[in-house]
Specification:
heterotrimer, A mainly alpha, B alpha+beta, C alpha/beta, A: mainly alpha, B: alpha+beta, Arc Repressor Mutant, subunit A, ten-stranded mixed β-sheet, three-stranded antiparallel β-sheet, elongated, disordered N terminus
Chain lengths: 104, 499, 495
């Protein structure tokens, strides 16, 4: 992201987030983006060089080890139940628009 | 990956520079192996290759809103064993991260993987030429589902494979030739199979290889690197590398500015034997990795590590050494018999039961493996045969005792392979018991001597070898069941008794 | 109060268990009240009438045969629309999940079912729990039973409104940055966010995984405590759930002697609404008279809590909401026919404005070149906020202050200004970021024109001190009667 204008940031971020957004919405969201990030600027003033990160929820001290799962099978969903909510399926597969070449 | 070539491995073992017109290949391998667990990495669904589509899924692996991952202890155990087997260092603390991207085979819109704190670092494999391929890291991650593009007007999505456990091992760019790549993969596969971590069956997708290839001039910096995908056998891996090296070198040698090596992903077309650019798929990736908040960090304590170390058992290299020093096998035999864990287990069991490792080694190699190879089956298929290690040991015992001669024993083994029956029963059934009963043999021998005055004279004159001419007819008379050694002894005695 | 005034959880369960009434009658009464309030409140997205009556009949049958039908026997309740009950639509008040019927039941819902409670309805909310007013629903705004022109608070707007209107004795919300405590304050309810990990999140549709907690509303603290204790305890399906079983309730105390209540300077800023300040100070005075010692404490990084919260929560949300891609559930939009354009069109049409804003913000703070400046930095400031509380709890047992900087505001008042809306979470997000147990409970009213609007007191405890926080809440409710006062609409609905 070389162009640092808020609208441009919105444009590129929307592509990454797979949100199709028109130019008018882009401009409106860009202005809001700028206001929101402006309001959050205070974070940059703190000296956090030696502060560890809290990742995930605050965690109790004890090790996670006991909370792993045994390698014991559980029943899977009936295929019909798994596919029931899909907007397009053929009883065996989820169907999506033809795509080749893998993820981008 | 480090940015400097490996310094390990002597120049003497390096491939011939003339082969690539003075260019030096720089090759790194990224290998995904499916861990051999019963259930998936983060849910209790079983996985079976080839199962009906979308029958092995649940709320977790289809990313139903609200469902959460829970780590499979066995997957972690196998991953750790793989790391230990490769001589790597297991991190006492590591974590999962989300790798965010959109694709139809990725139900959550992110893959749970490990980014900056993999569970395993370092390690490597030393090739036969002494050159060491260093591992940068191994990390644990979930597989994606499968998208099928060649059936009908739409892409079909099967999520059975979604969330199956994988380890991804990444080498430094230490590989210097297609052959080294092939050998590295052979060895990696062997080690992971020994560790019980993975089946490493490329045909079933439980091992997948991506390759990074570039070339440079001696003393010059590395050049642009091309990633090769769609490699479905080790042979294709080396063929793809060979081709890609030639392609890059040809471009550089052409000095034609319209031709460039670009940093890209290319797919190998095995049929045409060429790599093709995945054009249009080069949009810059931004995976937005961040720590997975639904899982706790992975903390591996000393007890767990010790448990995995103990479960690891003997690795191929150690086994090869022991087969030579303890069992007296040749280096070659030890190599063959450790080429798969199933085979080495089979051999050891048979050797123990028959008490003669050398005989066991010979019978397995000369009779059983030869047969498997004729049927184009792998050595590991020995475990699927109708003959058990105990069965072969029994047969070897019978041959030792002299109950059977060698051609008879071969015949029994064939019958054992076909019927699954025991050796002793088949010897009876086929009437192959060697006749060592001197009464019957003596009769046949007397008959054989009739009219053989020349032979008798030669023997009496001290040319004992001449008696050999009479062994054949006796064997024939016994329909092959006579013990040739006993026959020789009787014949000699009878000649001496003659006036 | 009329003779048919709504009963609390404990009362109703006791009556059902003693067979003074039965589960069918309780379910029918709740369903009738729900229909009566439906037009005015717009609090409900789906009603499971058949399921509720079937469960009630089954419970009555078992009760008649002498089976223990559980501590919540026959008590009707409502679920927020981000909670999974197999086969009942959970659309998160979003178009992107319209029609989604989960194939499984959340652990916490199952535990309530096992205890005899009876879900009758799915409630309205801010889309994907993103909002503080209920106005971000794709299915219309929920109204406050105390004043129908005002917000009941959010994002658990429908659940708050239903309990405040006396339709059900309790309802579940989810609290990520205050989404239960703030509506509890604005609706005269007890709303309790337990320690992070107390209640399994399995089956709670994620907004921000490291912050989300299932949190109940009821009129009394004793009721929310019973419901919380029924739901909590380790769940093998949620690794982040605390390893221990449910906590025990602390016994009633005769006085608060020996209890140190910390009052943070930062929770009483100059901009605090005067009535909120007055009611909170009065509540602290009540506690002091009961024997508690008030201690001044400081939570110096509180001013950074909103920014930290919105960076962390939106980053997680941008990833959590990536699964809404039109492949496995929800409606699909075509786009130009390619897969990636189908995604972009489905998501653009499916998500509302606020959700899009947060997905973009979250994507941005995680993206290459911005991660360190925003996301990593926020994770570090989160540590500073945690340390603030650790230091404060060296000097006190519980922190107290207001829950919301204002009483219920008018619908539409802040809906065009995201930053103003975010600031209404200023007093609730610190406890969320620190994962601490926090309770909001009624502490009085403010008159605004013809309206009488409730105000909430917030009590925050150290991690895992859930029993302590709830015991203090119960004690306060013995000394005060605010929680017994019903919204005008509740009287109408009960009539």
């Amino acid at each position: 992201m070389t162009d640092s204008s808020p609208a441009s940031a919105v444009h590129k971020t929307a592509q990454l987030a797979r949100l199709s957004i028109g130019p008018a919405e882009e401009a409106r969201l860009g202005a809001q983006f700028e206001r929101i990030l402006g309001a959050f600027q205070s974070l940059s003033k703190l000296d956090v060089a030696d502060v560890p990160e809290t990742t995930g929820g605050p965690r109790p001290a004890e090790a996670a080890f006991g909370r792993l799962r045994d390698d014991a099978p559980r029943p899977s969903l009936e295929r019909a139940a798994a596919l029931a909510n899909a907007p397009q399926q053929d009883g065996e597969f989820y169907l999506v628009p033809k795509t080749v070449g893998g993820p981008t | 990956m480090s940015t400097t070539p490996a310094t390990v491995g002597s120049a003497a073992t390096a491939p011939d520079p003339a082969r690539w017109k003075g260019w030096i290949p720089v090759i790194g391998l990224e290998v995904h192996c499916q861990l051999k667990t019963r259930t998936k990495l983060f849910c209790g669904c079983e996985y079976r290759f080839g199962a009906e589509p979308n029958t092995l899924t649940c709320a977790v692996c289809t990313a139903q809103p609200g469902a959460l991952p829970v780590l499979n202890r066995e997957a972690l155990a196998l991953a750790v064993r793989a790391g230990l087997a490769l001589g790597a260092e297991i991190a006492p603390w590591s974590k999962f991260d989300r790798k965010n991207y959109f694709y139809c085979d990725l139900p959550k819109g992110y893959q749970i993987s490990q980014f900056d704190r993999p569970y395993c670092k370092g390690g490597g494999i030393t090739l036969a030429n002494g050159h060491r391929i260093r591992l940068t890291r191994i990390h644990l991650e979930e597989d994606a589902g499968k998208a099928i593009h060649d059936r009908g007007a739409q892409t079909l999505v099967d999520l059975n494979r979604a969330s199956v456990p994988l380890i991804e091992s990444v080498t430094e760019a230490d590989v210097r030739s297609p052959e080294e790549a092939h050998e590295y993969l052979d060895r990696l596969k062997e080690i992971l199979q020994y560790a019980g971590a993975s089946d490493c069956d490329m045909e079933k997708g439980s091992l997948r290889v991506d390759v990074n290839v570039s070339v440079h001039r001696p003393g010059e910096p590395w050049r642009k690197r091309v990633e090769l995908k769609n490699l479905n056998s080790f042979r294709n891996v080396s063929a793809a590398i060979e081709h890609e090296l030639a392609r890059q070198i040809a471009i550089y040698e052409s000095n034609d500015p319209s031709q460039q090596v670009v940093q890209e992903t290319r797919l190998f077309d095995a049929q045409a034997g060429v790599t093709r650019s995945m054009r249009g798929k080069e949009e810059a990736h931004d995976y937005r990795y961040f720590p997975e908040p639904d899982l706790l960090p992975i903390e591996i304590d000393a007890a767990f590590l010790a448990e995995q170390r103990a479960a690891l058992g003997e690795l191929p290299e150690a086994k090869r050494a022991r087969f030579q020093s303890e069992l007296g096998l040749s280096e070659y035999d030890a190599g063959v018999l450790t080429s798969s864990p199933a085979l080495s287990r089979w051999f050891e069991e048979c050797a123990r039961l028959c008490g003669s490792p050398k005989d066991a080694a010979n019978w397995i190699q000369n009779e059983i493996l030869r047969g498997l190879s004729a049927e184009q089956r792998p050595a590991s298929a020995i475990a699927e045969l109708r003959v058990t290690p105990a069965g072969l040991a029994e047969l070897i015992g019978l041959a030792h005792k002299g109950t059977l001669n060698v051609p008879g024993a071969r015949q029994v083994l064939r019958a054992m392979l076909e019927t699954g029956k025991g050796a002793a029963a088949l010897v009876q059934e086929l009437g192959l018991e060697q006749v060592s009963d001197t009464g019957a043999l003596e009769q046949w021998c007397r008959e054989a001597l009739v009219g053989k005055d020349k032979v008798i004279a030669d023997v009496k004159a001290g040319k004992e070898k001449a008696i050999g001419a009479l062994v054949g007819p006796v064997m024939k008379a016994s329909k092959g069941k006579a013990n040739p050694q006993v026959v020789t002894e009787i014949l000699l005695r009878l000649v001496k008794e003659l006036p | 109060m009329s003779a048919r005034a709504p009963q609390g959880v404990l009362e109703l369960a006791a009556d059902v268990r003693a067979r003074r009434t039965n589960a069918v009658a309780a379910a029918e009464q709740a369903l009738a009240r729900l229909e009566k309030s439906r037009g005015a409140l717009n609090a409900v997205l789906a009603v499971d009438r058949d399921g509720a009556l079937a469960r009630a009949r089954e419970l009555d049958r078992r009760s008649a045969s002498g089976t223990d039908v559980g501590p919540l026997a026959g008590v009707p309740f409502a679920l927020k629309a981000n909670m999974c009950l197999a086969g009942v639509e959970a659309n998160c008040a979003s178009r992107v999940l319209a029609g989604y019927k989960p194939p499984y039941t959340a652990t916490f819902v199952q535990r309530l079912l096992d205890a005899g409670a009876n879900p009758i309805a799915i409630t309205n909310m801010d889309e994907f729990a993103m909002g503080s007013s209920g106005e971000n629903s794709a299915y219309g705004t929920t109204k406050n039973p105390w004043d129908l022109a005002r917000t009941p608070g959010g994002s658990s707007s429908g659940s708050a409104a239903l309990v405040a209107a006396g339709v059900v004795p309790f309802a579940l919300g989810s609290d990520t940055g205050g989404s239960v405590r703030q509506p509890a304050a604005l609706s005269n309810l007890a709303g309790y966010k337990p320690t992070y990990g107390r209640i399994s999140r399995y089956g709670l549709i994620a907004f921000a995984s490291s912050l989300d907690q299932v949190s109940p509303f009821a009129r009394s603290v004793a009721d929310v405590e019973l419901v919380t204790r029924t739901m909590c305890g380790h769940d093998e399906r949620d690794t982040t759930s605390l390893p221990e079983p449910a906590f025990d309730a602390a016994p009633d105390a005769d006085s608060l002697r020996g209890l140190r209540i910390g009052v943070p300077d930062e929770y009483f800023p100059a901009t605090l609404d005067a009535a909120v300040r007055a009611r909170t100070e009065e509540a602290l005075a009540v506690l002091e008279r009961a024997g508690a010692q008030l201690v001044r404490v400081s939570l110096p990084h509180s001013e950074h809590a909103i920014a930290t919260y919105y960076v962390v929560a939106t980053a997680e949300a941008s990833s959590n909401l990536a699964r809404y891609d039109g492949v496995r559930y929800g409606p699909r939009a075509a786009g130009d026919g390619s897969l990636q354009s189908m995604y972009a069109a489905t998501r653009a049409q499916g998500f509302g404005d606020e959700v899009k804003r947060r997905i973009l913000l979250g994507t941005y703070v995680l993206s290459s070149g911005y991660y360190d400046a925003w996301y990593r930095r926020a994770l570090k400031v989160r540590t500073l906020l945690l340390r603030d509380f650790e230091r404060a709890f060296e000097r006190c047992d519980i922190v107290a202050g207001p829950t919301s900087p204002t009483a219920a505001f008018k619908l539409g008042e802040k809906s065009d200004d995201p930053v103003a809306m975010y600031l209404s979470d200023v007093l609730t997000v610190p406890a969320s970021l620190a994962g601490l147990p926090a309770l909001s409970l009624p502490c009085g009213f403010v008159a605004d024109g013809a309206s009488r609007l409730p105000i909430g007191l917030q009590l925050i405890g150290p991690a895992r001190a859930d029993a302590r926080v709830l015991a203090l809440g119960r004690h306060y409710q013995k000394l005060t009667a605010f929680h017994g006062e019903l919204a005008p609409l509740a009287h109408e609905v009960a009539a």
